[in-house]
Design goal:
Blueprint: H1 2-16, H2 19-38, H3 51-56, H4 62-93, H5 99-127, H6 129-144, H7 153-166, H8 173-180, H9 186-215, H10 217-238, H11 244-255
Helix pairs in contact: 1-2, 1-5, 4-6, 4-8, 4-9, 4-10, 5-6, 5-7, 6-7, 6-10, 9-10
Length: 256
């Protein structure tokens, strides 16, 4: 809800009042969230995990950890580099949209991504996490190239809708890890995944901004698409074998 309403409300305030009013709205929302969070009850402590239990579990393959990590890196690269950097700048400079129009466009994209995540959940139940996450990332990479054909506000709306629906696998990267990595090693796997994701979020605005300044918007879309596609293909190669957890679950069946 916040990611959907935030851009629209901020854009409208920036147009009607000023950018300071939009920033003030963000500060107020943050303070309200912090105050509300302090009133929530503390969660129960997690059950203790013994070192022997962790040692008994087989060590996951590097690909089972790094492969999903590359997917998270790519999805957060897309969010930080394309959604929140490239598209707003392109909409303002090349298509000449107002702040309110850009905010509304981003809100519409967020709502479509919410619905596409529901579709992704249905596909995961039918086909598993790996095909949806990696296949969706390939489709997302190719859909970014649709911005090369944008020449009007209407075509920009269509391109944003396309990448929003193509982002259906982004919500299931963590599920892909838990499908492939034994539970005793989830902590390490999730830590690596988050680190790679944060790396993508940090690199994306810097890389995209550099390419825009040096080579233009068209080149930035091509570079972003290539980055996503490379990450998807590398993750596919690293996770081509059955996951460590799946192999462990299948072992008793083979012995029987």
């Amino acid at each position: 809800v916040g990611s959907a309403l935030g851009p629209a409300a901020g854009g409208l305030l920036a147009d009607w009042l000023s950018w300071r009013a939009a920033f003030a709205l963000a500060v107020g929302a943050g303070l309200l969230t912090a105050a509300t969070g302090r009133r929530l009850p503390a969660p129960d402590p997690p059950p203790a995990t013994t070192a022997s239990a962790a040692g008994a579990a087989p060590r996951p393959r590097a690909g089972d950890v790094v492969g999903p990590g590359l997917c998270m890196l790519a999805f957060l690269f897309f969010h930080g580099g394309v959604l929140t950097t490239l598209i707003p700048l392109y909409a303002a400079r090349a298509v000449h949209l107002s702040a309110a129009a850009i905010g509304t466009l981003l809100m519409a994209g967020t709502l479509q991504r919410f619905v596409s995540a529901l579709l992704g959940g249905w596909l995961v139940r039918r086909h598993g996490t790996r095909p949806v996450v990696i296949g969706g990332l390939v489709v997302l990479a190719l859909s970014v190239l649709s911005f090369l054909a944008v020449g009007s506000p209407a075509s920009l709306v269509l391109a944003v809708s396309l990448v929003s629906w193509a982002n259906l696998g982004g919500s299931f990267v963590i599920a892909m890890i838990t499908d492939r990595v034994p539970e005793a090693h989830w902590g390490t796997a999730l830590g690596v995944n988050r680190t790679l994701g944060d790396l993508g979020a940090v690199v994306a605005p810097l890389l995209v901004g550099f390419v825009i300044d040096g080579f233009g918007f068209q080149a930035a879309f091509v570079v972003a698409s290539g980055f996503l596609l490379t990450a998807a293909l590398t993750a596919a190669a690293m996770t081509a074998h059955p996951g460590s957890r799946l192999q462990r679950a299948a072992a008793p069946l083979r012995e029987a």
